[in-house]
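Hi R.,

Here's the chain you asked about this morning:
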Amino acid sequence: MRVRSILFAAWLAVALAGCAAHRPTPPAAVTPPATLAGDAAHPGQTQGWVDTKLYFGLGPSGNLEQGISETRWLQFLDKEVTSRFPDGLSVVDVYGQWQGKNQTAPERLRTKMIILLYPDSQENRAKIEAIRSAWKQITGDQSVLRVTEPADVSF
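And here is the predicted structure, written out as tokens:
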């Protein structure tokens, strides 16, 4: 009986090792083919691009009369953002909260988030900073949140 148990254990170990050895390997990450070709501003494949999200507080979420109007936002977008990044961008309405350094509770804010994809260069980073500075000058806000990450882009 003891010999049979040892033989069964050995057989089980070999069988399990064989299963592990024949486990299929996951496919390597594949960049999907581009759907747009021949447009230098929207290349089929990229290297060195980044994804930047900018968050702009427009005013209290419960009071549309206070803060920046949609018309004023669109003027800012055209003058300060689209003029610097004319090849494309996205704007998303989001709910935001912000607690400034001298505040005891967070403000609930109507917020716009701009998503920009662009080649990472000092020139483009300077354009982003110019947009943030313009907003702070117009509104008196302390900050415009910026999140920048590497991006694998295909158009």
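One quick note: The radius of gyration is 26 Å.

Cheers,
M.
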